Amino acid sequence: MTATEEIQSAADQRISDEVLMSVRNIRLSFGGVKALRDVSFDIAKGEIRAIIGPNGAGKTSMLNVINGVYHPQEGTIFYKGKTGLMKPHEAATKGISRTFQNLALFRGMTTLDNIMTGRNMKIKRNFLWQALRWGPAQREESENREAVERVIGFLEIESIRKTPVGRLPYGLQKRVELGRALAAEPELLLLDEPMSGMNVEEKEDMCRFILDVNDEFGTTICLIEHDMSVVMDISDRVVVLDYGSKIADDTPNEVRANQAVIDAYLGVSH
Amino acid sequence: MLYRETGQIKTDYKSDMAMFPIAQDRWFIYGCVAVAVIGLPLFASSYIIEAFLIPILIWSLAALSLNMLLGYCGQLSLGHGAFMAVGAYAAYNFATRIPELNIFIVFILAGLCAAAVSVLFGLPSMRIKGFYLAVSTLAAQFVIEWVFSTVTWFSGDNAMGTVDTPAIVIFGYKLESSIDLYMFCLVINIVLFVLAKNLVRGSVGRSWMAIRDMDVAASVIGIRLLPAKLLAFGVSGFYAGVAGAMYAFVYLKACDITSFDLFQSFNILFMVIIGGMGSVMGAYFGAAFILLLPIVLNITFQTFFATSGFAGLVSNIEHMVFGGLIMFFLIVEPLGLARLWSTAKEKLRLWPFPH
Amino acid sequence: MFVLEVFISGLLSGVMYSLVALGFVLIFKASGVFNFAQGAMVLLAALTFVRFIEMGIPLWLAAIMTFGVMIVLAIFIERFLLRPLVNQPLITLFMLTIGLNYFLEGLAQAVWDAEVHGLDIGIEDVPWVGLEQATGLLISMFDVISALIAMGLVIILSIVFNKTKVGRALRAVSNDHQAAMSVGIPLNRIWVIVWAMSGLVALVAGALWGTRLGVQFSLSIVALKALPVLILGGFNSIMGAIVAGLIIGASEKLGEVFLGPYVGGGIESFFPYVLAMMVLFWRPQGLFGDVIIERV
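ok -> structure tokens follow
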């Protein structure tokens, strides 16, 4: 319990009152299926925000709406002083990075190339320069490689630098995917079940990385996770979704005691 | 024992990211280039040069062109024969209508024309992918064939879209001997291969591969899909156009739409599959393999069944062998001969102590 | 009157396109493979059929024997091509069928020969006298009968697909391979069945086209005609293949007759493609296809 308290008090200093992102009245449906019904919440700068809920509650859809993979029928998003929905590549250039529930690595490429791709939008020289690979283009490539090497060092994956990612075990692939998202130096990092399918040790490593990212770079994190103990340990505030609606939005301790949340998880009929 | 990277320590990222980071590879490539530049012109007969070496140089460029699009960016084109035709006819028209243009400029302009056409037919990739897109490029093949055989303006008003190309003149020197032509092709080939290799290992190449491997993830990390795909179509079209112009000016010495038909498009595809998708070197392997295979088959058949009337059968067997090999490679080694080559190198690196 | 004649003859040749496209749709629905080799299968079936007849085998027996050959082919394809490539990208499978196309074209002509064979299946290619007297329209009897045969085949296939146990299994497989396997549907056997069924369709198409054009290499080119039909109709709709075949058939004939003279003729070769491309921009899934929602 003391560890949690420590994190909690550290968190209080870290989080500012400034709202980084605010999700407003999102409605999303596929045909007749209502995936999200009027969901609103906000993410403060510097916090670790968790989204939880039973299967099919609309968590992944929510992330997909935030970074523009899905277009909601109604509602909008406020991000860094601007209101409006973004396309995926716009979201990326505005500092939103993301990992996926089912790995979305580029399987034909090495670890290094995957992470380098995360920095692609930082490379400004056009294709003619790159074809010549001379002078400024060469320098730019080296600078970005240096930044990628820092990410590789941070995630402790030096030894698999030149291994094609398809050959890596699942846990390492997840780590490479995190690396790819980090390489873009995001302000807001969206993590979709970063610990699914991992053993205890791998989970601990992943928790440490997430906390370190938040701590050292001040990156705001919004994550979906099923493992309740992890969520309760590392997140500052929790949004609970059920059947596409928000049923709670509070600190971990409050959420744990919330009757609606308990009902949702135990499957009390509506 | 000879093929080791032990002791070759890289002290900066530049040397680690070099085209051939291992010294032995570098020496091997220098050796190949030396043989191509000095050895072959000295020792190869003009028949060998004209019948094998020049076609390999041209078709490897065509294969590289499709490989950038298919092997790197994951977009299948069945219209590369037609894109070559655009290059060939554009080069013919620039060369004959503006005779004072330098031949290299003519070829660059021809490449740009083919690039523009290729981008046009790549536009549907905005909405569709996979084999839907293949059908769009198939449409390109048929439309372009029709245009060049119907609109005779492109072929100097000669009927059926066939016309002789002018001789190649560089700064007043007329290329005539097979060695001249060979060197001309070799220079263009090497320059374009180096540029392509640089392109595919830089951020452009990474964005292409990202689209190939998973396009949603690519857009989520900030890659704009349509511009990246169109760039692939453009670059690929440029290379195809230059290859087409070379084919017309150097090999056929004529523009003839029938030599750029659907079957050439398929041939280029086969070169990419057999050579290795996503490998620049594979383009050479693929082109050489596809060009030499029919000859080897022919000789084999003539030796064993030295009777007349087998010409038809040989071409059918050739069809079967081609089709069979395509299926074999796709099932057993989708990365083609280039992959076999790099596996051999891996083995060599550990030899003689594999554990 | 002439317009109507062109339109109707276009529709009737459209029925043929539908027939070839139907073979594609069957395979696509059940195995997700876009079978470029359908044209080569038409060639192989027609050549086998005509050579059996030339050996003096009665028509009905030759048809059954050819069907047998197509079943054997289906078994081979499933065993040696589809099984090793389960879960590969669709584009790989597509390229595989281009290889298969080459292989079958070579095989058909190496085993039989590359000559043009006349085929007579007992229907004469003469104008329908009754119709001509009644309305003045010149329509070939052969076209009408082959259209009827094609329609009959389509109806039979629809019944098989929608009403029988095998059909239900087929639909399950087309929906989700793994889910279908997990409820005990034998995936491999289903694949053999669809490839054999599309072999049957190829046989009918080959016999009809072969009677009209002679059995020869160009039969395999009809596959290229069927591609735009598929795009237009949607890859996974039997209904789409039929309607789109008719549209393509009629519009290409009308286009050639009324547009052709202004642009130099010969537009029949690509007109269907241009038409299909325009539809793609407006409705990427085709007229009757299902929208695919991508999940991440």
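Residues 44-350 of chain B form a domain with the ABC transporter involved in vitamin B12 uptake, BtuC fold (CATH 1.10.3470).
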